[in-house]
Amino acid sequence: MTKITIEGNNLLSGEIKISGAKNSAVALIPAAVLSKEKSIIYNVPEIKDIEYLIKIMELLDCKIEHKNNTLYIDSSNLKNKPIPEDLSVQMRASYYFMGALLAKFGKVEMSFPGGCNIGARPIDIHIKGFEQLGAKVEIIKNRYIITADKLIGKKIYFDFPSVGATINIMLAAIGAEGTTIIENAAMEPEIVNVASFLINMGVKIRGAGTKRIEIEGTRKLNNGICEVFSDRIECGTYIIIGALLGKNLTIKGVIKEHLEAFLMKLKEVGVKYSINGDTLIISKTENLKPTYIKTLVFPGFPTDLQQPFTTLLTQATGMSIIEETIYENRFKNTYDLNRMGAITNIISLNKLEIKGPRKLHGTNVIATDLRGGASLLIAALIAEGTTEIENSDVILRGYSDVIKKLENVGAKIKITE
Ligand code: EPU
Question: What is the mean pLDDT of residues 227-250?
Answer without folding.
Answer: 98
